[in-house]
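Here is the promised in-class demo. Please do not try to memorize the tokens; focus on the logic of going from shape to residues.
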């Protein structure tokens, strides 16, 4: 268990996490977060698990392409279900169907400065990737920084706090978002003298290769837009082709040459995906474990092809069951729809309750108590009389 969670043991343990539905999920998503969610779900240690398909957040840089976002809602949900998210244990919900998130976002906007938002390193690097450089631009989205995109960390704070999440299993790139959520939650509780909101903890993978999985080209983080990804929904032939074309060690020309394992994608992926040493016994009995295999590669005498074939076996151990699950769910799209509807209905209930508590703490719950509203005005009237 992570530090920081111990103090909260007495609390209900709630998970909220999510993804933008802008494309199929790839192996970076899987080892960075999805796999952990499935483990946490099956650990039985959590009272409630919610996974949010963040379509509103996806629109902050896809406002001109809502169809892409719409179609990827089912796509991403299929990825979740085939990777092992169990609708009997976890809720899956759609962000835009949860009105309390919008209301909370608007209140939280008051609790954060534009300076603070512009320091968010994830937003900064995403701005660069999208060409939002922050300059004034009237014509289109190329140079201007859309306010919606700039403020999405505030909306993400609403996602997390509305569910009173204690734990957010997510990729390393989400750390600044959780930091922001903790700050806003703390500020809210301090200003409105309450303890309505929970400051969440993030859970990132312990394994370094899993935290920041590079693409098969070895150049950058795996991403759909860079075209260097392996997708959970790729068929076996596609995975094979991608593994065989992986970036390894350009100085390792002949089998007998000594090779490098650092920066070599085959070994980085083995670090990330090897389940246990029994996979050596099953597929590559020359070695007992990854250490031995790496040593041989570094010494010279182990060829790339042999390594890639082993990696492919390891990956297929993981991907084949996911592929089979997916084929089943794809023939039951109506069930997938119903799962999303049920998860969203549940989310509406939970988040409306938090919104209600927030409005109470802010004393803007006008229609809850007529007497309180009238009495408050009367005492204000008296005060202003005594002052005059
Ligand atoms: N920002 C996340 C991503 O880009 C998606 C997301 C939206 C999220 N709301 C969230 C993640 C709440 C964790 C918690 O993938």
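The designed amino acids, position by position:
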């Amino acid at each position: 268990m992570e530090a920081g969670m111990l103090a909260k043991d007495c609390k209900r343990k709630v998970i909220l996490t999510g993804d933008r539905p802008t494309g199929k999920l790839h192996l970076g998503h899987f080892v960075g977060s999805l796999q952990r969610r499935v483990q946490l779900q099956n650990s039985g240690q959590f009272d409630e698990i919610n996974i949010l398909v963040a379509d509103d957040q996806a629109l902050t840089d896809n406002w001109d392409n809502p169809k892409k976002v719409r179609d990827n809602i089912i796509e991403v949900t299929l990825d979740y279900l085939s990777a092992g998210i169990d609708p009997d244990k976890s809720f899956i919900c759609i962000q835009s169907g949860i009105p309390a998130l919008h209301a909370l976002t608007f209140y939280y906007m008051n609790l954060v400065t534009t300076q603070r938002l512009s320091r968010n390193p994830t937003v900064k690097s995403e701005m660069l990737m999208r060409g939002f450089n922050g300059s004034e631009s009237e014509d289109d989205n190329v140079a201007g920084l859309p306010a919606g995109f700039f403020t999405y960390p505030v909306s993400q704070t609403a996602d997390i706090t509305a569910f009173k999440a204690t734990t957010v299993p997510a990729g390393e790139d989400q750390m600044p978002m959780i930091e922001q959520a903790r700050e806003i939650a703390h500020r809210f509780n301090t200003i409105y003298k309450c303890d309505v909101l929970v400051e969440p903890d993030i859970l990132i993978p312990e394994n370094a290769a899993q935290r920041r999985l590079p693409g098969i080209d070895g150049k950058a983080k795996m991403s759909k837009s860079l075209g260097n990804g392996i997708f959970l929904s790729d068929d076996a032939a596609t995975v094979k082709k991608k593994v065989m074309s992986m970036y390894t060690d350009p100085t390792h020309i002949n089998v007998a040459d000594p090779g490098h394992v650092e920066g070599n994608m085959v070994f980085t992926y083995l670090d990330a995906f090897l389940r246990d040493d029994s996979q050596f016994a099953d597929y590559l009995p020359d070695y007992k474990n990854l250490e031995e295999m790496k040593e041989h590669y570094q010494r010279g005498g182990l060829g790339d092809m042999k390594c890639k074939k082993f990696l492919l076996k390891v990956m297929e151990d993981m991907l084949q069951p996911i592929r089979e699950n997916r084929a089943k769910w794809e023939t039951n799209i109506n069930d997938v729809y119903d799962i999303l509807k049920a998860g969203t209905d549940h989310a509406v209930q939970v988040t409306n309750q938090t919104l209600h508590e927030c409005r109470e703490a802010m004393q803007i719950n006008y229609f809850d108590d007529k007497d309180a509203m009238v009495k408050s005005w009367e005492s204000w009237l008296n005060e202003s009389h005594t002052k005059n």
